[in-house]
Amino acid sequence: MHPLTRLHNDPVLSEHRWSELPPLPGINQVGPAKPGAVVLATHPTWQVGAQNTPVITVHRYGLGKVMAVTTHEMWRWDLMMWGTGGTNASYERFWNNAVRWITIRDGSRRVRVASDKLQYRSGEMVNFNGQIYDENYQPVDGATVSVTISAKQEDGQILQIDLTPSRQGNGRYKGAVRYLPTGEYTTRVSATLNGISLGTDTGGFTVGEASIEFDQTKMNQPLLTQLSAMTGGQFYSVEESDQLIDDLSFSAVSSQQTRSTCNNYNLVI
């Protein structure tokens, strides 16, 4: 099924939604679709040449995409559905699909998963966050998302974790792994839905040795005050820097030396 005509994520329900739509009373008579175009809907009886007349047709042109709709009665899929006790959900879904399909380039990534940082300390949690889209760039909540983590070292390990849907929904997934040995790692992400591939993604990160010095980079004022008191010094904060100058006591430093000048020509002159 083409992304544009998918009125529901379930193909069976999508077909059912199409069958519920009211008929369109008329179309503009056009010629046959040009070579390379994809005809998504045709008139049941009118023909052009030996083929049914196109009603909805799409085509790729260069880096862009175009769509042709030969009927001006599609408003019926909106207003008349309300009159039969339904909603215009299928009508809105169709046009949302159309806009997304036309505006999104084929190279757009539909699987986007990455670690929350590029560098970690040994023992630190490595968190993965991602978002998955279908071919129509709609968020996918029920996908199977796996991350394969491979160490670049020759004897490095290969680990695979599965991401779980985030509570936020909207096609978001998350996962985490901890206690990876130090080294450089590459990641390869694969996402599938009902056994069909949605795409892949790649990335990487580094795990380094843990450093006590960098565990807490914020100033530890109580410790500095204690150390200065133990060594006979005084702790000053940035705000007290002027007081430091006043508290410093300077004393003159002098020394006396005796030297003979009788053999110093420069001094005699």
Protein topology:
Elements lengths: L10 H10 L17 E11 L2 E11 L2 E6 L6 H8 L5 H15 L7 E5 L3 E3 L4 E7 L11 E8 L6 E8 L6 E6 L5 E11 L2 E13 L3 H4 L5 H10 L10 H7 L17 H4 L1
Parallel strand pairs: 5-11
Antiparallel strand pairs: 1-2, 2-3, 4-6, 6-9, 7-8, 7-10, 8-9, 10-11
Describe it for me?
With 269 residues, the chain is of the alpha+beta class. It folds into 2 domains: 3-103, no CATH class; 111-208, Macroglobulin (MG2) domain (Immunoglobulin-like, Sandwich), CATH 2.60.40. The protein has helices spanning 11-20, 76-83, 89-103, 212-215, 221-230, 241-247, 265-268, and strands at 38-48, 51-61, 64-69, 111-115, 119-121, 126-132, 144-151, 158-165, 172-177, 183-193, 196-208. The chain has an 8-stranded mixed sheet with strand order 4-6-9-8-7-10-11-5, with no helix packed on it. It has a 3-stranded antiparallel sheet with strand order 1-2-3, with helices on one face. The chain is elongated and about 130 Å long. The mean pLDDT is 86.
**The biggest beta sheet, please?**
8 strands, mixed
The backbone outline, from C-alpha atoms, is: elongated
Secondary-structure element sequence?
HEEEHHEEEEEEEEHHHH
Uncertain runs are none
- Helix run count: 7
State which percent range the strand residues make up.
Answer: 25-35%
Helix proportion: 10-25%
Q: Report Rg.
A: 36 Å
Q: How many domains in all?
A: 2
